[in-house]
Amino acid sequence: MNDSKKAENDPAATNQAGSIGDAGAGVAGPAGQAPGGEPDPFLVLENLRRENAELKDKVLRTLAEMENLRRRAEREAADAKTYGVTSFARDMLTFADNLRRAAESAPAGAREQEGTALKTLIEGIELTERDFLSRLGKYGIKKLEPLGAKFDPNLHEALFEVPDETVPNGTVAQVMEDGYTIGERVLRPAKVGVSRGGPKAGS
Description:
Layout: H1 3-9, H2 11-25, H3 41-83, H4 86-104, H5 117-137, E1 141-143, E2 156-164, E3 172-177, E4 180-182, E5 185-188, E6 190-197
Parallel strand pairs: 2-6
Antiparallel strand pairs: 1-4, 3-6, 4-5
């Protein structure tokens, strides 16, 4: 028997040859892996960088959403504090109107009659009105002073026109019912009469 046939019939020789072939196949592993089947460190690093960037973006977005929620909650709390008494305040305006009507209903010259009970009563009504308006002011409620100002549809409600050429057209000439604001909102517009016939406002 010659040497080649011995090699074919010898299992040890066959296994040795196969081992050599397997070892040679391990020199060049699949793509993305280092020799020996280990992951490519450069590819792993790139994946880690990408994941880090994605996580950082998510964190920033979450922080921005939390900040928006915080600001919205603060704004809603401030609005509730400022405008929570709106309905009650609007009802109380009738009381202020009645105080004003009571003071204005006094006979002409009553304030000049020193020592009279009527003069004392009028002064007491006016003092009560000022105190009441001061207390409303603590809740951000302010009385409008539109007389002589330019008509503003956001603050005033025009009831009629007043012919008057001595003032610019569109000037508030009469106030029929006082208006009020609460915070930056109109609680009740002032009901007014507006001048007509004069020069245009601002000319």
